């Protein structure tokens, strides 16, 4: 009887261990946030943040049990025009220095389809933290053909009001709404 109970306990523990979220770390070279906003009604201006750091606790069997925590330097922003980037880093907008980060920490995940979910989390930027919802999609999870280890890729979108984060200068003439397109790759962490 003791042997049967021990075997059952070990099998339950092994199943629980297999179902637990696994740690993945972001691949900074293949992760970015692209943002767009309306400029005076004349054009749609585009920029990008890169230089991500962070981790995803990924539970492929139960995606709702997953979580994500990422950060990127504010000064990693690229817009294609150096003077615009300098203006964005000025006191008119971010007043940013090298150590300032944009961070996102998930607080919940609602699975909406076979490979889609709404990820709710706290976005902190420019001294303000607000809840946002990302419409996310798992692009692929499996062995990376060049790295030879587990990898996962995700895309997500959301729309923010920049004035919510104290970077609303010139709104509404320069659009307050900023559309974000996020694409990240993450590799399973070494154990």
Structure description:
- The protein is mainly β.
- It has a single domain (21-188), classed as Lipid/polyisoprenoid-binding, YceI-like (Lipocalin, Beta Barrel).
- The chain has two helices and ten strands; from the N terminus they run H-E-E-E-E-E-H-E-E-E-E-E.
- The protein has helices spanning 2-19, 82-89, and strands at 22-26, 32-39, 43-49, 53-58, 67-73, 101-111, 116-125, 128-143, 150-161, 177-188.
- It has an eight-stranded antiparallel β-barrel with strand order 1-4-5-6-7-8-9-10.
- Strand 8 and strand 9 form a beta hairpin.
- Residues 1-17 have low confidence and may be disordered.
Count of individual domains:
1
**Roughly how many Å apart are the termini?**
36 Å
Number of helices: 2
- What's the arrangement of strands in the largest beta sheet? 1-4-5-6-7-8-9-10
The count of strands amounts to: 10
């Amino acid at each position: 009887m003791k042997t049967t109970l021990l075997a059952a306990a070990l099998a339950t523990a092994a199943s629980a261990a297999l179902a637990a979220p696994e740690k993945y770390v972001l691949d900074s070279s293949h992760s970015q946030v692209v943002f767009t906003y309306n400029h005076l009604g004349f054009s749609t201006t585009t920029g990008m943040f890169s230089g991500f750091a962070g981790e995803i606790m990924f539970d492929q069997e139960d995606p709702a049990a997953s979580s994500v925590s990422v950060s990127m330097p504010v000064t990693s922003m690229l817009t294609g025009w150096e003077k615009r980037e300098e203006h964005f880093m000025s006191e008119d907008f971010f007043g940013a220095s090298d150590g300032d980060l944009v961070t996102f920490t998930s607080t919940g995940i609602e699975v909406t389809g076979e490979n889609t979910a709404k990820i709710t989390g706290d976005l902190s930027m420019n001294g303000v933290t607000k809840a946002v919802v990302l419409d996310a999609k798992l692009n692929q999870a499996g062995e990376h053909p060049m790295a030879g280890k587990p990898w996962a890729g995700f895309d997500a979108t959301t729309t923010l009001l920049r004035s919510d984060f104290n970077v609303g200068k010139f709104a509404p003439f320069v659009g307050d709404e900023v559309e974000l397109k996020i694409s990240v790759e993450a590799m399973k962490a070494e154990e």
